[in-house]
Every structure is written in structure tokens, then in C-alpha cells.
Amino acid sequence: NKWDNNWDKRDPFCLVKPISGSFRVSEKEENNYNEKLERAKSVATRHIILVRHGQYNMNGETDLLRTLTPLGRDQAYHAGVRLKDLALPYTRIIQSTMTRAQETANIISQQLPNIPVDSCEFIREGSPIKPDPPVHHWRPEPKQFFRDGARIEAAFRKYFHRADPTQTKDSYEIMVCHANVIRYFVCRALQFPPEAWLRFSLHNCSLTWIAIRPSGRVTVYTVGDIGHVPPNKMTTT
């Protein structure tokens, strides 16, 4: 399909009420309308850097017991150092409410101590949509896709959109969450078939960088960048 320029429903022509009334439009009415369009235009780029959590104890029976392994904490440290070295003007860190994501975000925050941290249940791990092609070793029940898919899609609509017209400078947000969520976000942001989300893999504490331009165009700088983690400490579990 062709690219939908108004995918986030924030195109100025969508936000400003069109001129109505008589067939003939006065010059004053046209000027007022054009001024409103200009004020409704986004002028800044929003950068979202998605970080997958570190390796964690997969044998934990509950989320509270699925804590980071020593290796996972080390991976998170390297991710924090990388984000610090980038020296970008971060505005906030958004963390999933799951234990492994919160622990990862906490370690990253130690490298970025002045950046506020927000928590969001919408970006918890889940099953966003039935993958195509399917995999035989992972088959969630249909109700799980129904439940998780709505939540993860709501997260996409909440966080992925062009900047508000009042935002005058480019922004950089860090989102610490999960592989399924990140992969789904990449597909949705690029307007690829969302069912393709399971066709690629992400390493623990890898970085995925997505930029949303004022025009609504989306640029993906990296997907699963893991160059900051030593090769002997790279995992995908």
C-alpha cells in the first residue's frame, strides 16, 4: 500500500476545521484558515530509542521472580553507558512495569541520573498479533492475542506520533520494554504488515532508534543495535 501521510491523524488538514459556508470564500477567511494550518504544523522531530531488557531468570514462576541475571545486569550497564555516550538531550525514560524492564531501566538511570522515569503498563510484554508465518514452538491462545493486541496497539498510538506544534526542539525519549512490543512497534511505524513482527530477532539490551519527522515521515536508524555489548555477553533470551 502507498504511504499514509496522516497515519497518526495529526496532519494539519485533519486538525483544522475546513472553511464552510458560502461557495465563495473571502480573502480574509482564506488567510485565517492558512494561519491556522501553519499553527497546527509540527516543527520538531521526536526520537524514540527502544531498549530491550537484559537477560532474566526465565524459571521464575511469577513476574517478581523473573529478575535480571548477573549477565543481564551487565548488559543493562553497557546499554546505559552507550546511551550516556550518545549525549543526547533525553527528556524521559519510559519503563514497562514488568520486573526485568524496571531493573534494566534502573541500571540505565544510574548513567543518566537527571532523566525522569515514568512507568507504563501498556508496554508490558505480550502477544501483539498472530505472526505470519506462524511458528510451531509458540502458539498463544486466541484470547491472548485479543487481549494483548489491543493493549500494545494502544501503546503505539499513545507514544508514536509527530510532535505537538508547541514543541519547538527535537526530543529524545528512551523506552525500556520487550522484544515483542518493540518488533510490533517497528512494523507499525514503518507501515509494514504488522503480522511480520516475528520475522526478526532482538538481542537483550539492544537499541532500536525510530524518528518521527514533522511531516509524519518515519525514519528507523537502527533495529536491535547491540554493538555496545561485548560479543561474549550477547544473548537473545
TrEMBL record:
GO terms for biological process: positive regulation of mitochondrial fission. Interacts with Pk92B/ASK1. SMART domains: PGAM. It comes from the Eukaryota. Belongs to the phosphoglycerate mutase family. BPG-dependent PGAM subfamily. Keywords: Hydrolase, Membrane, Mitochondrion, Mitochondrion outer membrane. It catalyses: O-phospho-L-seryl-[protein] + H2O = L-seryl-[protein] + phosphate; O-phospho-L-threonyl-[protein] + H2O = L-threonyl-[protein] + phosphate. PANTHER family: PHOSPHOGLYCERATE MUTASE-RELATED, SERINE_THREONINE-PROTEIN PHOSPHATASE PGAM5, MITOCHONDRIAL. It holds the Pfam family His_Phos_1. GO terms for molecular function: protein serine/threonine phosphatase activity. This is Serine/threonine-protein phosphatase PGAM5, mitochondrial. It is found in: Mitochondrion outer membrane. Displays phosphatase activity for serine/threonine residues, and dephosphorylates and activates Pk92B kinase. Has apparently no phosphoglycerate mutase activity. Its EC number is 3.1.3.16. One of its GO terms (cellular component) is mitochondrial outer membrane. It comes from Medioppia subpectinata. InterPro entries: His_Pase_superF_clade-1 (IPR013078), His_PPase_superfam (IPR029033), Mito_Ser/Thr_phosphatase (IPR051021).
